[in-house]
Specification:
Strand content: 35-45%
Order of helices and strands: HEHEEEHEEEHEE
Largest sheet: 6 strands, antiparallel
CATH topology: Immunoglobulin-like
Strand order of the largest sheet: 1-2-3-4-7-6
Radius of gyration: 17 Å
Helix content: 10-25%
Number of strands: 9
Distance between the termini: 54 Å
CATH class: Mainly Beta
Number of helices: 4
Length: about 160
């Protein structure tokens, strides 16, 4: 076997095994809230966001992932993937909200999420909670109406 083909085969095997190590949660059509799974996040910067990692939900044929990318101002990278739903109809500026330590829900101060059909990725920023974000023990994100009634994401910091 040529050296290049062997390396390609090993790379494919490592990628396949890595994907199998953290399967996505199964969702049922009767769930009002989707299950939240915790996964390691390569996208979130540990320096900027402490130990906050990626959270994901799957339901209604759509997977949504949220990863913290900044703490000043607080910002998340949100990815939506599907094979069957037109994701361009969802406006996260009106569908997403955040709360810190059980306080009031706040809308994003900025949303940068270009159209993409069956794959969309963009940034949600929450400048109005910047002063409380660093000391927050519990951070919650809710996104309503993306193929299921509510998607809930929760991050807890030890303290």
């Amino acid at each position: 076997m040529p050296k290049g083909a062997a390396l390609l085969g090993i790379a494919f095997l490592v990628a396949a095994c890595g994907a199998a190590a953290a399967p996505a949660p199964a969702a049922t059509g009767t769930e009002a809230r989707t299950a939240v799974s915790v996964a390691a996040s390569a996208a979130a910067s540990p320096k900027a966001t402490g130990t906050l990692g990626e959270r994901s939900t799957e339901g209604g044929g759509v997977e949504v992932k949220a990863s913290w990318v900044s703490s000043d101002p607080p910002a998340l990278m949100v990815t939506m993937d599907t094979h069957s739903v037109d994701l361009d109809v969802f406006d996260l500026a009106t569908m997403a909200k955040l709360r810190i330590d059980g306080g009031s829900w706040v809308a994003p101060s900025a949303v940068e999420m270009p159209k993409g059909g069956h794959h969309r990725e963009g940034r949600l920023q929450f400048s109005s909670v910047a002063s409380a974000f660093g000391a927050a023990g519990v951070i919650e994100l809710e996104i309503t109406g993306v193929a299921v009634p509510t998607r809930s994401f929760r991050w807890e910091r030890g303290g």
